[in-house]
Design goal:
The protein is mostly beta strands. It is built from no helices and 59 strands.
Amino acid sequence: MSPAAAAPGTVTYLSEWSSGGIPVTSTDGHAGFITPAQPNTLYYVQGDATDTKVGLGEQFEFKPPAGGTLAVGTYSGALDAKSPGYNGTQPSLSASNCNGATGAFTISDIGFADDGSTNRLRVSYTYACPGFSPVLSFVGELVVNETPSDPNLVVAPGSVQWPDTVIKTEGATVPINLYNDSAVPETITSAKLSSLAGINNFTEVYDGCSGVVIHPGEVCTVWVSYNPLGPGSNTASLDITDDTPAESHSVPLAATAVDAVGSWSMHSEPRENLGQGKDYAFSGDSSQVSVLGAPQGDQVQVRSQGSTFLANFNVGNHDHFAAGRTYTAANGSQILMFGPGSCGGGDNPGVFSVQQADYNHRTGYLMALRLTFEFHCFEGSPGLYGSIAWNTASPPDPIPGANTSPPSAPVDARAGGIVDGAEVAWDSVADSDFSRSVVRAAVGDVPPATLTSGWAVYSGTANDILMDQLDPGVEYSFSIWNYDIAGNVSARATTKIWGTDLPYTAAHGTVLYGVSDTLTTQTRRGDGKPATGFLVNYFIRPHGTYSYSYWYTDETQAGTWVMNHVFAPAHNVDVVGRFPGALGLMGNTTTTLTIYVAYRVTAATAHPTQSSAAYDKISGVIYPHDSGARVYIQRYYSGAWHTGGYVLTGKTGGYAVAFKPIKGTFAYRMYRPASKLNVAGYSGKIIITGT
């Protein structure tokens, strides 16, 4: 079933954002319900050519528990229907960009047609994607065929509920969009956060609306982030004043801040004074982690419940924690450790290695930390070994003794294309002492051979990364290595991705109304070789406007690798094509093609010879029909066309102009000037002899 456009007087949009900073906004109205009846409702929204998220489409499936029917209300504890734990007794929330999602959704309005199919929906949702550290959380709102509260200014989303956010970290930065859905310009006077309690936890990162005039079909955006200073619930609102009849709009903001979860495990060797040869494990409420010297984050203090153990990890020299680094006394670092059988802080400053250290790029606060450490009371064996995780997955315990064996190399390295970027992925390894993966990139088909060649792309524990702002016509190669906690490096895994070229031409560029033009597209790799069997999406808009709409999709053909599309536009249009990318191929976007359409003007006279003392008449029709438009008569003499009087067209584009011909034989024609929709058009020459 093809996506259905929104009904007149309704709005359709998708607003989504994630803790990874990926916003999605689509309001082009190409949306629809694919499954025809309840209780399984599958919704699809098609993005437009100016989407900030690559991929152009999102698919969602909202299902009630088995035997139920979707209705207004909140569905918590939802699982992806593809998850192993899904058995039908719980609601389901599935999203095309996340496998195994967990979350919840709230339906505030839903409507059904006579056949039981869904024809109206307003749903807000939140879900988390596994496999990311910290967990990547998505929040969004889908609105389909809903009557807007204000027909002049559509605010999307209508409300914002952040997922639980760890204190002193940065929650998602949310785009709040204001769309002018009226026929006249609207002025936004201000868009400011309210003064409700808890307002200090919200930040208006960027205001793109205050003092801005939004023309019909245009949009402005205000970005708001959540940065909690302490635990608890916070509320505020984004208050908007404008010159629409409603005069003001308000977007409720709500969020909850939670304490970070820490875990701490240790192994004390026999005859070790500190820990007295036992194993220890603290997690959740039994382990407290705090950052000293924030926002610089140059010390982390770990405390077990009841202060059985207390440790300070100090990077020294006013430095900061960095993934992939090992801190020793040589660089001014130190571990201070107190616990059962304590050696008073220890004669050995200790050694610790950091596997992950994520900082808030705006506030400077530490957001997540993983490290392993080794500590000896009296500088020799035995010893105390341990690992600490804060707001992230627990790292492996360090292995006592020397380890010089390289870890397993990454496997199945691959690169998939997006528009102007690439997604590089590889399979994880099962090594118990795995520390992190490192990715480096180079231009061309030769992957970086060493850990210093090319340029650094990533260092961390994920096995899937996204690179954007790449040159879409260039080939890139990638090398991936694994590290263990002892600092040993694996053999490399390599992959590459071809850039693509997407030449796009029109046969004419300017055509007469009713005459077809041919658009030709080729998909080529960066080396000029064809890329066949891939879909290219096309988008169109009236020339001089701002918003594209989805037009059609075509596929490059084997052998020709050329796509030709014949069409006859009625008015001037802009057209772009977008190849979303594929495995081994980067995506690309064509240049904008403008196809101009000239008015077609017919003209004829019944008297090619006429007395100059009598009136002659030229009549015809203007296509496309344009009631009340001026059509001018022109006469050719002295080497040029000269414009005379005009006549107005009727309801069906017809006209008739009466005039007295000049003595002699002259060429005449009719001229329709250009408008916002079409370029100027001229009739053929008419030869009239005046006697």
